[in-house]
């Protein structure tokens, strides 16, 4: 097992710089992103379409019973595993001791936190894979032997947070580590094997769809969210990875000089993507793509959650990185000042998406 790695030191948030209860940003139509979406068809919640949570695990939402029925084969093993956790007396005690009023509140909070920072979590895991296994060899390293990325979280102290802080502020990252799939299956007294195998089996149709949609698709990177104060409850995300074709093609055209220039900057570029993503989580700005984005490689924008028409929605601080100005958000300023690679954050994130 790779030794536990701590996240970088993060300055404490300030009320004045991270408040997300009001919003004065002017953004074009289509740039507002709802956090609450149907887990099957991705429909967003609106005043006219209220989503309902799964009564078994509280972790996902559906817009109709039909969507819930269609999603059940894949959701079933996850749902039942979480239901078992809720019914465990020790786990329930841990949840209440961590400041949550019920298992339902705990898991709803965890799911919204993970969903709010989905882009950042995927970037952190991918960057760690590339730094651990090599920029060119990361995918092979991930699969030999197959590995799982563990993200360790703890509940953030409410002191110092905005009065109406969103659930995207609920936890903070305390560290990360890698385990092999075999180590993962051996966790929790052997029950980890049963749970893991159920999840993997349920994901087979998704794996087929991903492979059919992109000839460069390789595998999914599993991210396992661990809340250290509630060891009996956890959650797993799977982020698809494709083998890079653009950068090798560009380097081939530029010869030895291009390769030398790339070798000099690639490590700092990946480290910047890692640190910037961690800082976005821990200094209370969320990185997300606009709803109008068509390409999964589109660069995300920093934003915050506001209340609009009775629902929490995400709004970007600006709609183009060229419009960034210091003072919009203290955490964003800190993250921008820490960049090592050349070309600015938009260039860094664009190249990182191609790796």
Structure, described:
The protein is of the alpha+beta class and 355 residues long. The protein has one domain (5-13, 35-354). Helices cover 43% and strands 18% of the residues. The protein has 12 helices and 11 strands. It has a 5-stranded mixed β-sheet with strand order 1-6-5-7-8. Strands 2-11-10-9 form a 4-stranded antiparallel β-sheet. The protein has a two-stranded antiparallel ribbon with strand order 3-4. A hairpin with a 6-residue loop joins strand 7 and strand 8 (234-242). Helix 2 (65-86) runs antiparallel to helix 8 (191-202).
Largest sheet: 5 strands, mixed
Q: Strands of the largest sheet, in order across it?
A: 1-6-5-7-8
Task: Compute the number of structural domains.
Answer: 1
Shape, per Cα inertia axes: globular
Number of helices, counting only DSSP H or I runs of 4 residues or more: 12
What pattern of helices and strands is seen along the backbone?
EHEEEHHHHHEEHHHEEHEEEHH
Structural class: alpha+beta
Layout of SSEs?
Elements: E1 5-6, H1 15-18, E2 33-34, E3 52-53, E4 61-62, H2 65-86, H3 89-97, H4 103-116, H5 118-133, H6 138-143, E5 147-155, E6 171-180, H7 181-185, H8 191-202, H9 204-213, E7 217-227, E8 234-242, H10 246-282, E9 286-288, E10 301-308, E11 311-316, H11 330-337, H12 344-354
Helix pairs in contact: 2-8, 5-10, 10-11, 10-12
């Amino acid at each position: 097992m790779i030794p536990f790695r701590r996240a970088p030191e993060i300055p404490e948030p300030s009320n004045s710089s991270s408040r997300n209860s009001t919003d004065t940003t002017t953004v074009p139509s289509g740039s507002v992103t709802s956090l609450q979406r149907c887990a099957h068809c991705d429909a967003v919640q609106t005043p006219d379409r209220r989503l309902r949570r799964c009564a078994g695990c509280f972790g996902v939402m559906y817009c109709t019973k039909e969507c819930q029925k269609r999603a059940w084969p894949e959701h079933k093993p996850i749902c039942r595993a979480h239901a078992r956790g809720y019914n465990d007396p020790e786990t329930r005690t841990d949840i209440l001791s961590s400041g949550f009023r019920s298992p339902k509140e705990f898991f709803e909070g965890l799911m919204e936190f993970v969903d709010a920072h989905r882009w950042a979590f995927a970037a952190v895991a991918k960057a760690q894979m590339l730094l651990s296994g090599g920029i060119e060899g990361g995918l092979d390293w991930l699969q030999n032997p197959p590995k799982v990325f563990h993200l360790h979280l703890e509940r953030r102290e409410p002191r110092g947070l905005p009065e109406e802080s969103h659930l995207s502020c609920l936890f903070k990252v305390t560290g990360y580590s890698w385990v092999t799939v075999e180590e993962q299956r051996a966790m929790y007294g052997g029950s980890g094997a049963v749970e893991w195998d159920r999840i993997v089996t349920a994901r087979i149709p998704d794996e087929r769809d991903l492979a059919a949609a992109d000839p460069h698709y390789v595998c999914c990177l599993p991210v396992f969210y661990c809340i250290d104060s509630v060891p009996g409850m956890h959650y797993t995300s799977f982020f698809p990875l494709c083998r890079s074709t653009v950068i090798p093609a560009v380097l081939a055209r530029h010869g030895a000089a291009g390769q030398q220039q790339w070798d000099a900057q690639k490590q700092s570029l990946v480290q910047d993507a890692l640190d910037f993503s961690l800082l976005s989580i821990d200094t209370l700005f969320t990185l997300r793509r606009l709803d109008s984005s068509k390409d999964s490689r589109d660069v995300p924008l920093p934003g915050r959650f506001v209340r609009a028409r009775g629902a929490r929605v995400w709004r970007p601080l600006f709609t183009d990185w060229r419009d960034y100005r210091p003072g919009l958000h203290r955490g964003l300023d800190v993250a921008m000042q820490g960049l090592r690679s050349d070309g600015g954050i938009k260039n860094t994130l664009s190249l990182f998406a191609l790796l």
